[in-house]
Write a structure and sequence with these properties.
By secondary structure, the chain is mostly helical. The protein is built from 16 helices and no strands.
């Protein structure tokens, strides 16, 4: 691609050059280099704005929204997702509209606005069913499952998670299968059924190890750590959660990294390393506040409050909700 870039940059072939920039943005995104991905995506966007290529422009807006959201910049991510949605609606790109609804739902879910997240995700789900897009369908179902789990509605979360898993298995998407297994593990832990949770953790780990993908390995390790915490095996949890946090850090995904570190803090507290655990929570709180992840920030404040004064608080097991 660098060779193609060297050939195209001096020319006025803006459309092909924009396509190369966007492919380079995709490669940088997969490598976890959000800054470089955004730089390439912005260059592609500028060229498509010059030539007035509406469909390409809608895709460039979508690419930037995904990149900014992955880096935790929700404001710009939502701004570009809304721009992409408006153009896709204008040109009648039904699939693109569904993707934008799903992206907006994910963004509001991670910011903690679950009502707005559900509104967008249900629209994405409706479109995915109508156009029979398996990838969008599995993603919307998994995101809705996560919303319901965050609300404490484990039965609904498990129901949507099981459907997401079926769709992902039929389509052959390993990443979506791992995500669904991890959600189902969390759902069954919420229901107080660690045996069923363990089945999904084992499946997630098997698939992740077979793929060798850093993101999937980090997801599966976090699910394994949460299960170990639930069972009171803090030492095992510590190992799994350290691997998970390191994996997300390698990808540059700060939100998921500090979600794993939040669980890691609980493992440290349960091992009697209270101050180390609290330091992790304090770091996580700062990151969550910076990213605008309000539900995560509220959860971390609760953990800090519950372990605030060893003379007055019960500093034994903290249930990570």
């Amino acid at each position: 691609m660098m060779r193609a870039l060297a050939i195209l940059e001096p020319s006025d072939n803006w459309q092909d050059l924009a396509a190369v920039y966007n492919r380079m943005a995709g490669v940088s995104y997969q490598l976890g280099d959000w800054e470089r991905a955004a730089e390439y995506a912005r260059k592609g966007l500028e060229l498509r704005e010059r030539i007035g290529y509406t469909y390409g422009l809608s895709m460039s807006y979508n690419n930037l929204s995904v990149i900014y959201m992955a880096g935790g910049d929700w404001d710009r991510g939502i701004l570009y997702a809304e721009k992409s949605l408006a153009l896709k609606q204008q040109i009648g790109d039904v699939e693109g509209v569904g993707i934008s609804f799903n992206n907006l739902g994910m963004a509001y879910k991670d910011r903690g606005d679950l009502d707005r997240a559900r509104q967008y995700l249900l629209q994405a789900l409706d479109i995915a069913r109508k156009i029979r897009n398996a990838n969008l369908l599995a993603s919307a179902l998994a995101n809705l499952a996560h919303v319901y789990l965050l609300e404490g509605r484990w039965a609904d979360g498990v129901s949507y998670g099981e459907e997401a898993l079926r769709v992902a298995e039929e389509s052959g998407s390993i990443e979506q299968q791992v995500e669904a297994h991890c959600l189902l593990a969390e759902g069954w832990l919420s229901a107080g059924d660690p045996e069923r949770a363990e089945q999904h953790v084992e499946q997630a780990r098997h698939l992740a190890e077979g793929s060798g993908t850093c993101y999937m390995l980090a997801l599966a390790a976090r699910a394994e750590g949460k299960l170990a915490l639930w069972r009171g095996d803090a030492a095992r949890a510590l190992d799994s959660l350290e691997r998970s946090a390191a994996g997300f850090a390698d990808l540059g995904n700060r939100l998921e990294q500090y979600r794993a570190r939040n669980c890691l803090g609980q493992a440290l507290v349960e091992l009697g390393r209270r101050e180390e655990g609290r330091r992790l929570w304090e770091e996580a709180l700062q990151v969550f506040e910076e990213l605008g992840a309000e539900r995560d920030a509220d959860e971390t404040r609760r953990l800090l409050e519950e372990t605030g004064n060893p003379a007055e608080k019960d500093c034994g097991k903290v249930v990570f909700r």
